[in-house]
Amino acid sequence: MFNLKKIIGFRTPMLALIVNNTELNLEYFTEFFTINKTKIKSQIKTALIFSFLSLFLTSAKYSSNFVVVNSPDNESSSIGTTSILSQIAGVSSGSTINLSSVINSNTFLDDIISINFFVEGQNLDLVEYYDLENSLNPKHFIYKKIVSEKAFDEYSRTYTKNKILNSSNFSEDEFGIFRFQISTKSNVISYEVANAIMKGLNEFTIKTMQNNALEKRQYLEKRLSEVELVILSSEDRLNDFLNDNKNFIDSPKLQIEYNKLKTDVELNYQILKQLVLEIEILKSGELKDNAQLIVIEEPEITEFRSNTIVSLFLKHFVLIFIILFATSFFLFKRK
Questions:
Q1: Largest Cα–Cα distance in the chain?
Q2: Residue range 299-320, pLDDT digits in tens
Q3: Which residues contact 183 (CB under 8 A, 6 or more apart)?
Q4: What is the distance, to the nearest Å, from the Cα of residue 206 to the centroid of all Cα atoms in its chain?
Q5: Fewer beta carbons under 10 A from the terminal one: N or C of the chain?
Q6: CATH of domain 62-297
Q7: What are the pLDDT digits (tens) for 167-181?
Q8: What is the C-alpha radius of gyration for the chain, rounded to an integer number of angstroms?
Q9: DSSP tag of 79
Q10: Could you tell me the pTM of the whole model?
């Protein structure tokens, strides 16, 4: 029976100290590579062979990506221009939508996987596409046979959504620039999914803006009714004061009270005027349906694979060589 340690394990140099006086002992490493150069060369050859063979087991991947700018809702920004209205109405300025959270949501992904795409001569949604792709997968085939149709449909939809997320990379920086990339075995699927997600995000921002405008308008209209009542009340107080104090000009104290009542009426009219203006702006926001995301780069269909043969070969070679080297050094080290 052959000695596995003798075949695989590295020989240990006669020098026992790797570190000598807090400094690396270069002689140790020189001797180590000298006495083990044959085995290291053998490991390099083995890594090259396995790296080459692994290329036949790795599927081609095709990527598609897009870049958009996610800017704040412009319709709400004017509300913050008047400090009085902001404090009284309690309305904040525009804010951006977290596009990454949108993509991760089940509701958004359910819409994406239900869209039909023309792929490989067939009109399929993503659930049907991955069902066909996994038709030869034993686990998939057996699960389809043993569970109910409803349970398998739920499993397929969950699998498809996870497949999209696991195949995608997306991020948003502090400037609102959102980058998305997806890599699949089909260049058509990569393009169609990226394009559908870009359009879906834009539609989501439009609906969100419209809903926000509706909610803010409804709030401001309620506030408008309250301000109108306050104006009537403040005007009544001012009129009562004038009726009771026709010669208030002769009294400094009454002049101060008059100025306060008059200022109160004027302030409420300013609020009323601003509320009416903002309500009209928000009404237009409810009807606005044009693109809200600024597209910097659109998805494209590419014929070139994203996981190139050269990059795969180098990646597999480095990984396999490190595994072989570490195994020989740590598990089969011998004197």
A1: 123
A2: 998 877 765 667 767 887 888 8
A3: 61, 62, 63, 167, 190, 306, 307
A4: 17
A5: N
A6: 3.30.1890
A7: 999 999 888 899 999
A8: 35
A9: G
A10: 0.63
